[in-house]
Write a structure and sequence with these properties.
about 325 residues, alpha/beta, Rossmann fold, Metallo-beta-lactamase, Chain A, 2 domains, six-stranded mixed sheet, 9 helices, binds zinc ion
C-alpha cells in the first residue's frame, strides 16, 4: 500500500484530503505542523508528501527544503490557497515537485500522482453503487437578499429574492432557508421530478421573515407524494413549528400548515452535530437577535458553510 504524509495545520482540510487518499487505498500519515511533518517524513519515508504553505513552526518552504535535502525519492506536492506566482516559484525552487491550488479534488491529485509516481498502480476500482448513483454535488443560490424581496433593475444580476440555497450532495437535496427564493426552487423541482416523489430536507437558520416567508409558496409542499423534513432550532419566544404555522394562520394566509398535503414534518434540533443521510452537519449560533444558527455541511465531495445574518462586530456603543 503506498504511503502519503499530509502536513496541514487546518484539521478540516487535513481530514478532507486524508479521506480522498484513504478511499483510494493509501496508507495516510498526518502532521499538524511543519516540524512534526519533517519528523514523520524522515522516520516513515512515504512515497508522497502533501504540504500546506502557511503553518506553525516550519512553513511549507522550509519543509520542502529539509525533505528535499534528506529524502530524494519522495515526491512533494505543495497545496496552497494562494495563487501568487512567487509562491509557486519559491515552492518549486525549495524542492516541491508540484504546486496545487485549493480546493483540492481527487481529479487534481490523481493526475499529479500519475505524473510524479507512474510506478504506483492506478486504482481503477469501480465506485460503490451508492456513490455512482448519487447526484453530483452542486450549490445553487435561489435567494440572496435580506429583509425583503427587492425586484427591479438594480438586482437583476443576483436576483431580488430573500434567502434560499439549494445543496445537492451524497444523494440528498438540502435546502438552506425558505426565503422567497424557495418559490422558484419549488417550480424547478416540480419540473425536474414530474410525477416522481421528492425527499427534501429544509434547514432553517432562523425564523426572521426573510428566511421563512417563501415556505407557503413552495409548491412541492402541496403534493402528497413528497416528503419534506424541516429542521431548525427553537426560536427565542416560541418553538419552530409554532412560528412556521403562525405565518400561515388566518388572516395572514388562506391555507394552514396542517392542511399542506405533503408529508411535512418539523423537527426541532437539539444537537450541534447531526447527519442528513451521509451528509454531516455542524451548527454554530450566530451573533444576531434571537436564535440564529449557521450550518457547515460536509459531504464526500467537500464542505460548505452557510452562515447568514451573522454580525461579526461588537455592538456600537452610543455615547
Ligand atoms: Zn435575521
Amino acid at each position: 500500500m503506498p504511503r502519503v504524509l499530509i502536513i496541514e495545520d487546518d484539521a478540516e482540510s487535513r481530514r478532507l484530503i486524508s479521506d480522498l487518499f484513504r478511499r483510494d487505498d493509501w496508507n495516510v500519515l498526518e502532521a499538524n505542523d511543519g516540524d512534526a511533518g519533517v519528523e514523520l517524513a524522515l522516520r516513515d519515508r512515504p512515497e508522497l508528501i502533501l504540504c500546506d504553505l502557511l503553518m506553525p513552526k516550519s512553513n511549507g518552504f522550509q519543509v520542502c527544503r529539509t525533505i528535499r535535502e534528506q529524502l530524494q525519492p519522495t515526491k512533494i506536492i505543495v497545496v496552497s490557497g494562494r495563487d501568487y506566482r512567487v509562491d509557486r516559484t519559491s515552492a518549486l525552487q525549495a524542492g516541491a515537485d508540484e504546486y496545487l491550488l485549493k480546493p483540492i479534488t481527487w481529479e487534481l491529485l490523481s493526475s499529479a500522482i500519475e505524473r510524479l509516481l507512474p510506478e504506483i498502480p492506478r486504482r481503477s476500482r469501480p465506485k460503490p453503487a451508492a456513490e455512482r448513483e448519487s447526484t453530483p454535488a452542486r450549490i445553487r443560490f435561489w435567494g440572496v437578499r435580506g429583509s425583503i424581496p427587492v425586484p427591479g433593475k438594480g438586482t437583476v444580476r443576483y436576483g431580488g429574492n430573500t434567502s434560499c440555497v439549494e445543496v445537492r450532495a451524497d444523494g440528498e437535496i438540502i435546502i438552506l432557508d425558505a426565503g422567497t427564493g424557495i418559490r422558484l426552487l419549488g417550480l424547478a423541482l416540480d419540473k425536474e421530478f414530474g410525477p416522481r416523489s421528492m425527499k427534501l430536507t429544509l434547514l432553517i437558520s432562523h425564523t426572521h421573515w426573510d428566511h421563512i416567508q417563501g415556505l407557503p409558496f413552495f409548491s412541492p409542499a402541496y403534493n402528497e407524494k413528497n416528503v419534506i423534513r424541516v429542521l431548525g432550532y427553537e426560536g427565542a419566544r416560541a418553538g419552530l413549528a409554532t412560528i412556521l404555522a403562525g405565518q400561515m394562520e388566518t388572516p395572514f394566509f388562506p391555507v394552514s400548515l396542517r392542511e399542506l398535503p405533503s408529508h411535512l414534518a418539523i423537527e426541532e434540533l437539539k444537537e450541534a452535530e447531526f447527519q442528513i443521510g451521509k451528509v454531516e452537519v455542524r451548527s454554530k449560533f450566530a451573533n444576531h437577535p434571537g436564535i440564529c444558527a449557521g450550518y457547515r455541511l460536509s459531504a464526500g465531495s467537500g464542505s460548505i458553510a452557510y452562515f447568514p445574518d451573522n454580525e461579526p462586530y461588537e455592538p456600537l456603543k452610543l455615547r
